[in-house]
């Protein structure tokens, strides 16, 4: 049981860090916080996208009317809509009242969340794992919602650096914790299938906010938990 003085100190610490987090959010571009939803419905997009894929096949010298490719344009359009379904989701929709008041002040870590995304430079996939940690300030998030947040921002045209930052900011907006840490490890098919063609290369990015940025010991604790077997 914490003493009254310790509780007061916790309150001051949380208030100070929350103000710092708000300041950090303000310096982000709007694109880093929320992307606009795709305006038309999927049903409206499908025919036009299918036509575009058909034109692409013709540009490659293929016959889109041959048996093997007859339904490929529609299949490819449906696949692309699935790969980018994060545009149709918002943070509020995903949270869905899964933020709970809880007097828990120890680190929460969910690691090795599988992630699939699309490189916005080449429109080829990259995939990997995401580890998220946060230090609560009187509010906690349903654990499955961390994976859902990853899904929102990974199922878009992305670069890994921005994806990492968006996840961290989304968790901050959701529960206003004392700090958030996100580490993403990705394999990029644009490096594996083309260009340098390095099949064993991995890209690691991180975003540290609040106490994870300011306190080396807190950051070290998170990284040790992430790298532990």
Automatic annotation (TrEMBL):
Give the EC number: 3.5.4.16
Q: A GO term (biological process) for this protein?
A: pigment biosynthetic process
The GO molecular function terms of this record are: GTP binding; GTP cyclohydrolase I activity; zinc ion binding
**Listed pathway(s):** Cofactor biosynthesis; 7,8-dihydroneopterin triphosphate biosynthesis; 7,8-dihydroneopterin triphosphate from GTP: step 1/1
Q: Which Gene3D superfamilies match?
A: 1.10.286.10, 3.30.1130.10
Question: What keywords would UniProt list here?
Answer: GTP-binding, Hydrolase, Nucleotide-binding, Tetrahydrobiopterin biosynthesis
Family that this chain belongs to: Belongs to the GTP cyclohydrolase I family.
What is the protein's name according to its record? GTP cyclohydrolase 1
């Amino acid at each position: 049981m914490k003493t009254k003085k310790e509780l007061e100190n916790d309150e001051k610490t949380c208030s100070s860090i929350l103000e710092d987090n708000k300041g950090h959010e303000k310096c982000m571009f709007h694109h880093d916080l929320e992307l606009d939803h795709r305006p038309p419905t999927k049903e409206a997009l499908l025919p036009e996208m299918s036509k575009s894929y058909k034109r692409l096949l013709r540009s490659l010298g293929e016959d889109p009317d041959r048996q093997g490719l007859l339904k490929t344009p529609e299949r490819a359009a449906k696949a692309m809509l699935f790969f980018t379904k994060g545009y149709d989701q918002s943070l509020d929709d995903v949270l869905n009242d899964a933020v709970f008041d809880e007097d828990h002040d120890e680190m929460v870590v969910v690691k090795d969340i599988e992630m699939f995304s699309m490189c916005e430079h080449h429109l080829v996939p990259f995939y990997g794992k995401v580890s998220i940690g946060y230090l609560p300030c009187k509010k906690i998030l349903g654990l499955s919602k961390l994976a859902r947040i990853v899904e929102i921002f990974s199922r878009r045209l992305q670069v890994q650096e921005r994806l990492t930052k968006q996840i961290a900011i989304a968790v901050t907006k959701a529960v206003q914790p004392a700090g958030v840490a996100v580490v993403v490890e990705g394999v990029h098919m644009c490096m594996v299938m083309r260009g340098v063609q390095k099949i064993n290369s991995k890209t690691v990015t991180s975003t540290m906010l609040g106490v994870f940025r300011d306190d080396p010991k807190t950051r070290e604790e998170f990284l040790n938990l992430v790298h532990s077997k």
